[in-house]
Amino acid sequence: MKDTVDSYVTADGRTIGPVVMEMKNITLRFGGVEAIKDISFDIREGEIRAIIGPNGAGKSSMLNVISGFYVPQEGEVWYKGARRPAMKPFQVAQQGIARTFQNIALFEGMSVLDNVMTGRLTHMKTGLFAQSLWKGAAEREEVENREVAEKIIDFLEIQAIRKTPVARLPYGLKKRVELARALAAEPSILLLDEPMAGMNVEEKEDMSRFILDVNDEFGTTIALIEHDMGVVMDLSDRVVVMDYGKKIGDGTPDDVRNNQDVIDAYLGVAHD
Ligand SMILES: Nc1ncnc2c1ncn2[C@@H]1O[C@H](COP(=O)(O)OP(=O)(O)OP(=O)(O)O)[C@@H](O)[C@H]1O
To answer: Relative to the CA of 60, which ligand 1 atom is closest?
Structure first.
């Protein structure tokens, strides 16, 4: 039912809209290695969609296809009802798709606020030339960008460290700053690359809460990849499971939890 209806309301009262992104028969090779083998799935507006799988399953490769870092040899990416041509990552970002990275990619010497401001770059219309001609527009833009950045900093409860250089922050907070920077782009789809990796239990709980709050408050569609099946089950509306580059499960957390192929993959049952 959920695959065909335009929109539906979840048990916790959130509205999940129609399909916003569709991966159709994606195959990605690195030389002789097929990292993704003929995988199709979709992402609906407003949902939290997880892609999970054991080590080497192809999750990062898939996230990199969505964000434009890799162009698949076969298959199509459809976004907002149109086939997306091969694009550079910055063009994908301009289309409203923001991401975080597994190995935090922040400017360590810059303050939290300045890092979050870099997330506004895709929104900056006034180039250097225009700025020199028309200072007023550039100033207005700066004020607007700062307001968005400050709102997100408040929302993610990192006001107290807004002036602190990122290098001085513990790992869990750096991950939160990275989330803030991605959100500053006001994305339609937010891609999270193993947002809970390397975190302790408390930090994982915090991150889960912020992901849920972002989705609820801003209505942001979220697609995340995660190694650990447990942490995403409570968080996600639907889950794609990959193993050895193939899709072995796709559905609600309960669907995939009861899927024998998924159970085998996580228990390390031998493959043909
Ligand atoms: N740039 C690359 N060049 C060559 N092979 C690659 C490259 N990136 C990934 N692979 C291979 O593609 C397969 C899928 O890797 P990928 O990193 O997408 O899996 P993953 O599910 O994200 O793994 P992990 O959970 O360990 O991060 C692996 O066999 C990997 O060795």
So the answer is: 22
Q: Is 103 in the pocket of ligand 1 (CB under 6 A)?
A: no
Q: Is the pLDDT of residue 142 over 50?
A: yes
Gap from CA of 118 to ligand 1 centroid (Å): 28
**Domains and their CATH numbers in the chain:** 1-96+187-272 (3.40.50.300), 111-181 (no CATH)
Closest CA to 76 of 45, 40, 47: 40
- ipTM of the complex in this document: 0.96
User: From atom 30 of ligand 1, which residue's Cα is the shortest distance away?
Assistant: 56
Cα-based angle 102, 235, 270 (whole degrees, multiple of 5)? 70
272 CA distance to ligand 1 centroid (A)? 20
- Residue 3 clears pLDDT 70, i.e. is over it: no
pLDDT of residue 135: 63
pLDDT tens figures, 78-116: 999 999 998 888 899 999 999 988 777 889 999 999 999
55 in contact with ligand 1, CB cutoff 6 A: yes
> What number is the average pLDDT over the span 133-143?
71
Residue of 37, 60, 103, 248 to test ligand 1 pocket, by largest number of atoms within 8 Å of CB: 60
Ligand 1 close to Cβ of residue 59 (< 6 A): yes
